[in-house]
Write a structure and sequence with these properties.
480 residues; alpha+beta; three-stranded antiparallel β-sheet; 17 helices; 17 strands; 11% strand; elongated; disordered N terminus
Length: 480
């Protein structure tokens, strides 16, 4: 095909047809192979609104639970499972925003809350507006921080003495050290900035939790406030998903967002339900997963119930009608972790293989070897054959157009392209180049005016037949 341009120039010089040079020196015609976006490859391309699922909060002003699912043609997100929030409600987005007291997952020692609590840790409430004292308890004697708060509220010495006497022995010692430093360096008032600077050890001994978040890991701390770590790095108890958050005292990791290693993934729920004989069993299977996985399961089952209820072979129907949903269900957890997790994955993102290595269920090659590479799809469930060639010769491609499309003259571009995509590397290029020559060709009268063009001109077709070899090598895999 490299000599095509020279052949075309020779024809133009000898025959009484004029052919525009448009696309006639096509060669590989790679544009028709890769033309248009590929929904499901994980990249948002021109013409796509999305490609893959995102947490609900990334798709709009929703609560962080569950996911917004990119629909089958990548034109929009399915937000049906996302729960909208008030305009000024950002609780749960991972950071403490304006008007928020804390962020979901934060805890605070109960001793630092009003109410004379002595033990426990309070959780940030669901709306991030304050602390939930449900886990706090009262009674007993006061800590250093409670003594300090009590004293600063007093207006006479008798009150201050009573505050100190109500403290524990440790609380009294820590308060005395802080008070001594405070009087000497900060005028004995409640200047927190001064206490942090000039009474660092005494102040943070009295308020240990406030040391957390000062930008460095101090003695007794293992992390810093708001620091995160992948859950799986905390041990084998967690699924490789989500992140743990450093707690409010910087002494441990809060695992409220982590998923137990024994929790079923979306496709494991599907397999579990498939072995059930009653609805109770099915409910037990579903209860073993977590919200994001269940949302994917529900989406897949909705598609299967609509399209595959009476299908004789569920797997075949799933591949044909609900592939996007089932692929997402199979691999949303592990795809992209640099490991091929069987049995749900066959490859990892970024991997490529020669097209000839892609096999069908019988172990037969689907594509011609040695012509291009296939890449692992965004769900790690198969190699995409977008750049691969099948096995039909040029003659077989033209026969496909006549039989399936009603001929080149009346066939749609989509149908013709589909037939050409059945071709081998050589067969596709030969058929495509032959077609493009005819489409760019016109008969002219003696004055040079076009009289018949493209497939309306028998002469153009004859010249294309004469000058373009259209191989007819038979292949048992054509049509595939």
């Amino acid at each position: 095909m490299r000599s095509f341009l020279f052949v075309l120039m020779f024809i133009l010089a000898l025959i009484s047809v004029s052919c525009s040079d448009g696309d006639s020196n096509s060669g590989n015609d790679s544009d028709s192979i890769s033309g248009g976006p590929e929904c499901g490859n994980g990249t948002i391309e021109e013409g796509e609104f999305c490609d893959g699922n995102v947490p609900c909060w990334q798709a709009g002003h929703f609560y962080p639970e569950l996911e917004a699912e990119c629909n089958a043609d990548c034109s929009a997100y399915d937000l049906s499972k996302c729960v909208p929030r008030e305009d000024d409600d950002n609780c749960g987005n991972g950071q403490k925003d304006e008007k928020e007291t804390c962020e979901m997952g934060d805890t605070k020692p109960c001793t630092e809350l009003p109410g004379n609590y002595t033990t426990g840790d309070a959780d940030c409430n669901r709306y991030c507006t304050g602390w939930d004292p449900t886990k706090c308890s009262t009674g007993g004697t006061k800590t250093c921080s409670q003594i300090f708060q009590c004293v600063t509220a007093c207006t006479d010495d008798a009150c201050k003495t009573a505050c100190v006497e109500a403290g524990t022995e440790e609380g009294k010692q820590l308060y005395d050290a802080l008070n001594e430093c405070n009087v000497a360096n900060c005028s004995g008032g409640v200047d927190t900035a001064c206490l942090e600077e000039k009474c660092y050890d005494e102040y943070y001994s009295c308020y240990p939790s406030q040391k957390c978040g000062n930008g460095k890991i101090d003695e007794g701390e293992i992390c810093e406030d708001k620091e995160t770590k992948p859950c799986q790095e905390l041990g084998e108890d967690w699924q490789p998903i989500n992140e743990a958050v450093c707690n409010s005292t910087c002494t441990d990791w809060d695992t409220y967002a982590c998923v137990d290693k024994d929790a079923l993934t979306c496709y494991q729920v599907y397999e579990c339900v498939g072995e059930c004989a009653d609805s109770t069993c099915e409910e037990e299977c579903i209860a073993k997963t977590w919200p994001a996985a269940k949302a994917k399961y529900d989406t897949m089952m909705e598609c299967l119930d609509t399209n595959c209820k009476d299908a004789p072979v569920m797997e075949d129907c799933m591949k044909e009608n609900c592939k996007f949903q089932s692929d997402a269900c199979k691999t949303h957890l592990t795809c992209g972790n640099d490991n091929v997790d069987e049995p749900y994955e066959i490859c990892e993102k970024g991997e490529t293989v020669d097209c000839g290595e892609i096999k069908d269920d019988q172990g037969e090659s689907i594509y011609e070897a040695g012509t291009a590479n296939a890449f692992c799809n965004t769900n790690c469930t198969e190699y995409s054959g977008l750049m691969c060639y099948k096995f039909c010769s040029c003659t077989a491609v033209k026969a496909c157009v006549e039989e399936e499309c009603g001929g080149y003259k009346t066939g749609t571009d989509e149908c013709v392209t589909t037939c050409e995509d059945l071709g081998s590397y050589e067969g596709k290029n030969q058929a495509s180049s032959w077609r493009k020559f005819v489409e760019s060709c016109c008969e002219t009268d003696q004055s040079g005016n076009p009289t018949a063009c493209g497939f309306e001109s028998e002469n153009c077709i004859k010249e294309a037949d004469k000058n373009y070899d259209c191989g007819s090598t038979a292949n048992a895999k054509c049509p595939y």
